[in-house]
Design a protein that fits this description.
heterodimer, A: Aminopeptidase, B: Spore Coat Polysaccharide Biosynthesis Protein SpsA, Chain A, eight-stranded mixed beta sheet, two-stranded antiparallel ribbon, 21% strand, globular
Chain lengths: 387, 324
Amino acid sequence: MFMNNYLEKLPSFVDTIESIKETIIANIVLIGQIPAPTFKEKRRAGIFMDRLAECRVDECTTDGYRNPIGIVRGTSSSKPPIFLIAHIDTIFARDVDHNFIVEENSITGPGVTDNSVGVGVLLSLPEILRKLKVRFQSDLVLAGVIQSIGKGNLRGVRHLVKTWPTPIRGAVCIEGIELGRLNYYSDGMVRCEVECNISALNGVKHKFKPNAILVLNEVINQILKLRLPQRPRARVIIGKVAGGFKHGDIALESTLGFEIQSDSDKMVKLIFNDIKDIIEAISHEYEVELTFKTISNLKASTLTYNHPLVKSTRKVMKELEINPAGGPCESELSIFLSRKIPAITLGITNGENHHQKNAQVKIDPMFKGIAQIIGVIMAIDSGVCDE
Amino acid sequence: MNDSWLKKNTFHYSEFTDISRLVEEKKKKNILISLCLPTLNEEKTIAKEIVIMKSELMTRHPLLDEIVVIDSGSKDNTLEIAKSFGADVYEASSILPNLEQFKGKGENLWKALYVTKGDIIVYIDADIKNIHHRFVYGLIAPLLLFDNIKYTKAFYDRPIAIGKSKIRPTGGGRVTELVIRPLFSLFFPELTQILQPLSGEYAGFREIFEKIPFPIGYGVETSMILDICEKWGLDVMAQVDLERRIHRNQDTKALGKMAFVILKTFFNRIEKLELIDLKKDIFSEMIQYNLVKDRIKPDKLEIECFERPPIETIPEYREKFNIG
């Protein structure tokens, strides 16, 4: 009954949210223009805190890992808090021009899709809630987590959730794109890097000096020959390759980055061991040293499709005419789920050129995307995660 | 030269980050503040300027009473974009249409005086890539907090955007260093304390702007400083360090044209002040040269340096603002 009450309000929320679009866009731009490559988020975290303080949140602090956090106090002191999370680090180096371009219906700039829109919306929430005249029983914890991407290995959110002193009622992870994404499970994952460095070898060892790129090419070929099962689902994604100096010189250094993903942790481990064997064999066969490193890992964790949080979120999306699209999500979500805290990841708007310097998001769909977040917080506050 | 002005009248924007205090001061003094953005084909930067100023200095802190865009005839979507984000948009040609029409930044600034309602007017260039509300509150603050200050001017550490995504840490201000500073050193050494006399961001009280002439083009910044200094003295001016400003870089030929206009404006002023006596009229044609297929060809451009008179002398303005 209560659920339907707030569902009906959601479409009208969209216009109210749009009425403060300048505030939302300004937050996206002002936070997004501060470079924040993983491990170097200090300045952006500082601005995050300043903006939250200016928004007059009830409490503004950092946790022991320097994740910036704002708290909007709820009406009940007995209800556990609801977490709203957006990672503040980006894949772009400091010397990249981070100035955004705002046009009639778009914002363009490096990192805008991942995750300036998410962070900007998080910063705008106190103002949006005031405008909507909405209050919750639970406290809202607005956290911009650091060290999420790549080698950051979700350290910020891991620390935040691990050390939070009270139970957590539920969590919503906010990503810039795509509107309609509804992630409620994360696959088991191991992210690995293989390095081949020929120059470190003794020069007289080889009759013909091996080529570091071709050695890793052989590693890739062997990985591709692995027979991966249909059930449990499993895959290996070859995501990054780098190496060599000049067109005409034999490459002496090369690096390969890949991820093993499966909904079974056991399968991830089996594939990991297979690849480890491949690397050892190639290292022996080519007489080169291959360094194999694990840079991050996640355990598979899931809510069911029929979990009340997932069901309520689908209802919220339906009310706002957003088509839900599922899929696993290897991000902050997995940290909550692995600790049995109901959580989902949602996208705010539509965009393109994801992870490129000219990444772009649309402005118009954003307001629906934000209304959906408010709807889901209302659902959690009404108790859908409490069972 | 006495450099006490530099010490006394130079501020850093970080001294004024308490915007609520500025709003209180504004209320106490019962004054209105207008932001004017002169534009010509600024579709890539105008929205961001409006959005940030509206969000931070109208919605969050009611420091500004209006944002006005005065356009010189943009061919891109500048006007539509500015309107869509809620600015009051005017084509310069539609303001005081009975007067002879000119095109130029100075023309836009002058006409802004007619359409804006503020007691303080802040002028900000519309091509700033790293726009931040400090550009505006930093200029307004000394005007609100110090009764003797009537005009504020920005200065920066000015990186220039190079290539698509890299920023060079220093540079800019070539016309200032090669043209204006030598001229000021020769004729008005005390004005050399103004670190970036050509910066496009300044603010002041209407009572100042309405009493000075406005060259229609690039000369407006130079003439403004000379005229204000002559009428009211250097002490009514202040400069504010706004730290970084990232803007489009201009090629040397374009800067040459800018220098031409500034020199002409300067000569005009020092002749009026009887500091020099030109025995004949100076020319109004800028001549540059291009190498075209191994032949050197002149590239001539007629640059008339018109000036608008003090706007308080215009009957329509006097009527609108009840000047007896």
